[in-house]
Amino acid sequence: MNDKVSINQVLSFTTPALLVLIACLQLIISHQYNLSQWKGGGFGMFSTVDRPNARIFHAYFITENDTIKFDIPGNEQFDRLHEIAYTFPINSYLDQVLSELDQFDWFCLNQKKVKPDTDNWAYCFTSTEMELYALELGEDSHELSLFHQIDPAFIRIEVWRKRYHSNGSILEKSLINRRDMKSTS
């Protein structure tokens, strides 16, 4: 009987041990910190509908008199932050998104004014996007007068996930994280 452990014996246990360690970390992070199971090693990715692009992102401007839901513009500026916030919606990442949103002057067209039976949802653009929109439409366009600059007291973002109800037949959404930030602009 040989008392020495060969390098091959050590290596034969190292790979499975490393795989179990990664799986355990994935399990802890996905349940404790809401990392999408599709990321961080992908363990469990086919057992869930909670992949990053299936998560729902809501953004709100909160003024003295109103709460206005809006879509965050899809551009290079925000896309990388969104991807991180969708995938791993911890407070620090959501705070980065809020800080980025707070850096701009915003102009909104409230849908409620256009279609009174809709939710309080608005088309919102940054000042730069409004300048481009004005160039596209022409400075004297009637559409531009429908937009107003918004001065929110707070900005709120929420990340939601879709999950099957415990009976397995109904898809429902549940809140993962919500962050508010006092607007400084």
Q: State the shape.
A: elongated
Amino- and carboxy-terminal Cα gap: 76 Å
Number of domains: 1
Structural class per helix/strand content?
alpha+beta
As laid out across the biggest beta sheet, the strand order is 5-3-4-2-1-6-7
Number of helices: 6
Radius of gyration: 23 Å
Largest sheet: 7 strands, mixed
Amount of helix: 25-40%
Provide the succession of SSEs. Answer: HEEHHEHEHHEEE
Provide tags for this entry.
185 residues; 7 strands; 7-stranded mixed β-sheet; alpha+beta; 26% strand
Please tell me about this protein's structure.
- The structure is a single chain.
- This protein is α+β, with helices and mostly antiparallel strands and 185 residues long.
- It has one domain (48-182).
- The chain has helices at 7-32, 76-87, 91-102, 111-114, 127-137, 142-145; strands at 56-62, 67-70, 106-110, 121-126, 148-150, 154-164, 171-182.
- It starts with 6 loop residues before the first helix and ends with a strand.
- The mean pLDDT is 75.
